[in-house]
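Field notebook, page 489. I keep forgetting to write these up properly, so this time I am using the form the group agreed on. The chain and the ligand, adenosine-5'-diphosphate, are recorded exactly as supplied. Prediction of the bound pose follows.
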Amino acid sequence: MNNNNYLWEIVLSDIKKEVSDQVFNTWFTNSFIDKVDFNNKKITIISENILISDYLKSVFDPKFKTSLKNNTSIDFDIEYSYIGENKSIIEDKRIPEPSPDSFIKEKFLAKDKPSGMQNFTKQPSFIFEDYKEPEKKAVPLKNNKNKGLNRNFTFDNFVIGEGNNLAYNVALSVVEYPGVHNPFFIYGGVGLGKTHLLHAIGNELEKNNPDFKIECVSSEKFINEFVQSIRSNSKDQNLDEKFRNKYRNVDALLIDDIQFLADKKETQNTFFHTFNELHMNDKQIVLVSDRPPSQLDGLEDRLVSRFDSGVISDITPPDYETRFAIISFKCEKYQLKVDDNIISYIAGNITGNIRELEGVLKEIDIITKRTNKPVTIHMAEDIIKRRVKSSKKKIVPDDIINTTSDFFKISIDDILSSKRNKELVYPRMIAMYLCRELTDLSLPAIGKLFNKDHSSIFYSINKVSTFLNENENNIVDTIENIKEKLNNK
Ligand code: ADP
Ligand code: MG
């Protein structure tokens, strides 16, 4: 180590006293002092990328200066830079790349590792040996359902890999310093963990700041509430105000699937003002989308440029190692005993997204619990073959309505009717949910099918999602069973 970095070590030892291990490991372990110019009282701190560099500058600059002053009696000016041509310096510090399976088994699956240790990654920002279990802050989660947070989506059960490493790191920093990366915009394809990360941010923010007002909402729900607020405006002025208050008086606003705001001009206008107000007051905004801001057609330019002004991070599909790690992690969670060669087989064959991986595991779970037989490679093979076949098959709403009524032993006329008996309402809700999940139909189109307006469809689908989160009445099995029947048709 050269003298410059001896100085850096001293600064870091001061910083370490003030931040959690998790933040320290994420943001500081791969930065270093490149130049010390005593004549001009200038030093240069080099980081791994522009994001880290900006972050250190915006958040830690005063702390670095104080520490430098205390330790050297010099008032240094600090320049910040990041690795460009100098990449080799960082490369040298990387841990050697081990063979994937043995690496994952050794580092990630070791039984004696505490939970939360699922951070294996080849990225230098997380050197595994340095990783320490984050300090647990003993603040119980309040059961405030209004916040729209799914309690199952936490950082603890989010597996880190190459495709989501950056998004995860920014998410951690958003939680640690709300309002600094604003807005934080996450985008990526389906089933890659965007919603999971969004809710994890909300849950952790709440844990760290029990008094925070947090709203986590899908843009569909946001639009729906907005439409209702203006619709009833003539009758009830309060509703409009309620809507405004709900979203403008928060410490953090988390919105999922923001792409659905496209072409909703009036909602966009309201959202624009909400956004500005929150942003001006340094209230954290996190947005999730299926594409980057620049590709959000139908979204006003002024909104796109607001989104562009924050930190944008994408999530890309998991590589083999990450898939292997996710399957292993979920098997432990479901208490499923699955051999490594079977995990490897699944990881090698399901390459699309994490929701699909979960689908395979859920089927394995159902089958093994029903038959009481151990998991075999043939079982995995069958399930995967069937899923691949069915993903090619197009499911139409008629199939869903027929199969769901058949499953619940009710007539098609009844499922499509407006009768309010409990035995009919529940299957109807499930059919609506499946139409949304398995077909391309919009909410109004599903509404037409069931003779309802899109807001009651929205309400029903939301209800099913809530039931699914809590597995009320064993709804997960019910839905999996109906899907199985649909696929076997
Ligand atoms: P998206 O919103 O990107 O479509 P979700 O966040 O709904 O995807 O993720 C789909 C499923 O996969 C969820 O059940 C989620 O918990 C799981 N999942 C996604 N990413 C991860 C991850 N990195 N680790 C563990 N589970 C994950
Ligand atoms: Mg999602």
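OBSERVATIONS:
- Residues 275 and 474 are 39 Å apart (CA to CA).
- The chain has a mean pLDDT of 82.
FOLLOW-UP: compare against the apo run.
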